[in-house]
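It is worth pausing here to work through a concrete case rather than discussing structure prediction in the abstract. The textbook approach is simple: state the sequence, then state the predicted structure, then interpret. We follow exactly that order.
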Amino acid sequence: VNAAGVTLGQVIGFATNGAQDLLKLQTPSQSEALVPFVDAFIVRMDLEKRQIVMELPEGLLDLE
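Step two, the predicted structure:
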């Protein structure tokens, strides 16, 4: 989710490209996206709710 509580997607996998770790998301539109799992994007992690709150650059999830 983002800081406003909007669902960005569900984590369905994890990958690494050598330079950074990536979360594989299934977006609400059922497409898949790779999101860099970096401190700059993470607001907080809520283990009880099983949520990662992230602020992503605009358009990142629109890339194919």
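Step three, interpretation. The chain has a mean pLDDT of 91. The radius of gyration is 11 Å.
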